[in-house]
Specification:
Elements: E1 2-6, H1 11-22, E2 27-32, H2 41-47, E3 52-57, H3 63-70, E4 73-78, H4 87-106, E5 115-119, E6 135-136, H5 151-170, E7 174-179, E8 181-183, E9 195-198, E10 201-204, E11 213-215, H6 216-228, E12 236-239, H7 247-257, E13 263-265, H8 268-284, H9 295-302, E14 306-307, H10 310-313, H11 323-342
Parallel strand pairs: 1-2, 1-4, 2-3, 4-5, 5-7, 6-14, 7-12, 8-11, 10-13
Antiparallel strand pairs: 9-10
Helix pairs in contact: 1-6, 3-4, 4-5, 8-9
């Protein structure tokens, strides 16, 4: 069966391609944006000589590109999404692009429609409405007001709602994965859940909250496990590693192993108070000063929820890379990069 990976040139996409090949898949089509970084097909085919790996340049915004990418495909790993930018840009690349992909899927005869694994995010959970310390699993309600969060959370919430709508209305087969904070060499180093970076100062807002990490290789393995499982149809899975650090432990390691930064810890009650003041000033000034902190967003990010990965582990998945080893590799890669620039 031919597999399509959208977003195959991205941070997670390149690892997913490798994991699919390791687990025996041999017929892959990789959708990458024109001019973007792409997996090294020549190197992969040398290591996996029986594999047929096809690069398909195009965007999900172009119906012709989508139709070409889906030809003869039986399963789609849908990773493509905007990671940052304006709300309009994220909506275009995350939501509109997904709609074009799903439209192309349901235009095919029912017996020939590919199943879709949507890579969503734990940001879709209604964490702002939950008591502090609540353990979030796949039964937890999703975000009712994503527009009060941030552009990324809004885009992922709308994307996932669209996906579930197509599954219910059109009978499209599929499964949803909700990864935590995907990290590793080349990825984001200090997640927003730890705090905010200001000029010359880092505000540590996460305190002793659990940091819901998943190492990029572990996440890729989890997606393969979900995609290949006969039990996963129409299911939702959190993708979170074991042995997670607190935000305070992560920041301490980062400062010791990667970069020395000046940080100030802000207790949760003070974070909430500052959030109210920021929101009030934003309203009274009629938006002259952006509301960087709001009570709703602060509750979503820093109120201290925990995440459960038991459902995924019931499929037989276990993290291949421990959190200690993942953090060591991540910070070591940054140190190597710094030394390369210095030389």
């Amino acid at each position: 069966m031919k597999l399509l990976v959208t977003g195959a040139g991205g941070f997670l996409g390149r690892r997913l391609v490798e994991s699919l090949l390791v687990h025996g898949e041999r017929d892959l089509r990789l959708l990458v944006r024109p001019g973007s970084r792409r997996p090294d097909v020549e190197e992969l085919t040398l290591r996996y000589p029986l594999a047929q790996i096809e690069i398909c340049e195009g965007t999900l915004g172009d119906a012709a590109d989508v139709k070409r990418a889906l030809a003869d495909v039986g399963y789609v790993y849908h990773l493509a999404a905007a990671k940052g930018g304006a709300v309009s840009e994220i909506f275009l690349h995350t939501v509109v692009g997904t709609k074009k992909l799903l439209d192309a899927c349901i235009q095919r005869p029912v017996s020939e429609r590919p199943a879709v694994l949507l890579v969503s995010s734990i940001s879709v959970y209604a964490s702002a409405t939950l008591p502090r310390g609540t353990v979030i699993d796949e039964r937890t309600p999703v975000e009712p007001r994503p527009e009060l969060r941030d552009a990324y959370a809004y885009g992922k919430a709308r994307q996932e709602a669209l996906f579930h709508e197509y599954r219910e209305r059109h009978g499209l087969g599929g499964v949803t994965a909700r990864p935590g904070l995907i990290y590793g060499p080349g990825g984001t180093l200090v997640p927003t859940r730890v705090g905010l970076t200001l000029p010359g100062l880092f505000l540590h807002l996460g305190g002793d909250n659990q940091l819901p990490l998943t190492y990029v290789d572990n996440c890729a393995d989890a997606l393969v496990r979900i995609g290949r499982s006969t039990q996963s149809k129409d299911q939702i899975y959190n993708v979170i590693d074991d042995d997670l650090p607190t935000c305070r432990e992560y920041l301490r390691l980062y400062k010791r192993e990667a970069r020395r930064v000046r940080s100030v810890g802000v207790p949760w009650p003070l974070t909430l108070a500052l959030s109210h003041l920021s929101e009030q000033y934003n309203r009274s000034s009629r938006g002259q000063l952006p509301a960087i902190l709001t009570p709703y967003r602060s509750r979503a990010l820093w109120a201290g929820n925990r995440f459960d990965n038991g459902k995924l582990k019931a499929l037989g998945w276990r993290p291949r890379i421990s959190t200690d080893e993942g953090l060591r590799r991540t910070f070591a890669a940054l140190d190597d990069e710094t030394q390369d620039r210095a030389s």
